[in-house]
Design brief:
14 helices, alpha/beta, four-stranded antiparallel sheet, globular, eight-stranded mixed sheet, 409 residues
Length: 409
């Protein structure tokens, strides 16, 4: 009966609502309405064929015909950190509270009154990847930014390949002056919050960006320093620094040949083998042996192995469940409290696989961009931008929008 179903909705950890065609539109909403235990927020997984999925983007959306992805999403839901699940469910519940019977009735009658043509033509919405103009962001961001009720805009931005074009060496990746100037102006706005989340260590990224009053997250979010100087580091395995020191010596002794080198970022180490990408720069068999040995050493030291910069850098990270997604959720929660999704708009931008972790965590909660010049690269981002100039143009659009919004008030 209804009371038994409500109890199941309340006590279950995950609701998997995956019809193979249009249907089950209210099931997800019923699940959300019954989530009244603050310590057990629960996670909702929806098929895109559920009609309500378009309005419930904080849920995990997966195509039920892709069995492997369904399994991955179910695992993600069952292991999702409570802070992320809490944020998603709070946003879902807030929407259902607002969108009651009176809301839908009024919306229905308003639609009847607005049947006259007046929508922007499809031709105006077309954009080309290779020539992004500031007006192109009207069609990308206007709808998201025009939603009422928010008081602050949060910009969460990667550095290498996003804010700054890649250099031949990390030291040569420099923030363009125009990008720094607009970022500084945005950081100075009281209604804008800025954070740079990067694979670089904190001292390095602070020196590179050199903007005050913003939050820096280094080593893919493992080290976080707030504008007031307070710091956060997630719990680490024992003897991680000692093991990192041992691994650094081993990698330098055994793997740093033919132009490869190790970047020491404290408890994160990065083996740079960009020099091996050119054909003929190193024997392929030798290259594979060196990379295999590097991975063996990283595993022996108890570190996780990660790839960045298009597979040209192999990283050793502490073996903890923490990535840019966890860092983004922590930064937003610490800055704006548990109910932050009700009060802010979020724009995330990155260019790498490590940034996909943040896009995944913020899916349905933020508008995200990925800097990538190929349409074949899979991404969770809402939109692709061809290069770092596209990010500069996006920031200029944001500045213009925020100034116009301030003037209207």
């Amino acid at each position: 009966d209804d009371s038994e179903l409500a109890a199941l909705y309340r006590d279950s950890n995950v609701a998997l609502v995956t019809p193979l065609r249009d249907g089950m539109n209210l099931t997800g909403k019923e699940f959300v309405a019954c989530r009244i235990q603050a310590e057990k927020p629960g996670v909702l997984i929806l098929s895109p064929f559920v009609g309500a999925a378009d309005l419930m983007q904080e849920a995990l959306i997966v195509n039920p015909y892709e069995i492997g992805r369904v399994a991955d999403y179910l695992h993600n839901a069952l292991t999702m950190p409570v802070p992320e699940a809490e944020v998603r469910m709070n946003a879902l519940r807030a929407r259902e509270k607002n969108n009651d019977l009176n809301y839908w009735m009024k919306s229905f009658f308003m639609e009847i009154d607005n049947l006259a043509p007046g929508e922007e033509s499809m031709s105006k919405r077309r954009m080309t990847m290779d020539s992004i103009k500031i007006r192109d962001f009207d069609s990308m961001l206007n709808k998201y930014m025009a939603e009422p009720g928010w008081s602050k805009l949060c910009l969460l931005l990667d550095y290498d390949g996003t804010l700054a074009p890649h250099g031949s060496h990390p030291d040569l990746t420099v923030l363009p002056e125009a990008t720094k100037e607009v970022l500084q102006r945005l950081a100075d706005m009281p209604e804008v919050f800025v954070s740079v989340i990067t694979g670089r260590c904190i001292p390095d990224i602070k020196a590179k960006v050199n903007i005050k009053n913003i939050t820096y997250a280094g080593n893919h979010g493992i080290d976080i320093i707030h504008p007031d100087g307070t710091k956060f580091v997630p719990p680490m395995p024992e003897e991680v620094e000692e093991k990192a020191s041992w691994l650094l010596q081993k990698l330098q002794a055994e793997c740093c040949v033919d132009g490869a080198w190790v970047e020491n970022k404290g408890i994160v180490l990065a083996l740079h083998h960009e020099a091996w990408k050119e054909k003929g720069s190193i024997d392929p068999e030798k290259k594979e042996k060196l990379l295999t040995r590097a991975r063996e050493l990283m595993t022996e030291a108890g570190f996780k192995i990660g790839m960045s910069d298009g597979g040209l850098v192999t990283e050793a990270k502490p073996s903890i469940k923490w990535d840019k997604g966890n860092a983004a959720i922590y930064i937003l929660r610490s800055a704006f409290g548990v109910d932050w999704s009700d009060n802010i708009r979020i724009i995330f931008a990155g260019d790498d696989l490590t940034d996909e972790d943040a896009m995944k965590a913020l899916k349905g909660l933020a508008y995200s961009f990925r800097v990538v010049n190929s349409g074949l690269v899979q991404t969770l981002a809402n939109h692709r931008l061809p290069d770092t100039k596209g990010i500069l143009t996006m920031l200029l659009w944001v500045e213009k929008f925020m100034l116009e919004r301030r003037n209207k008030k």
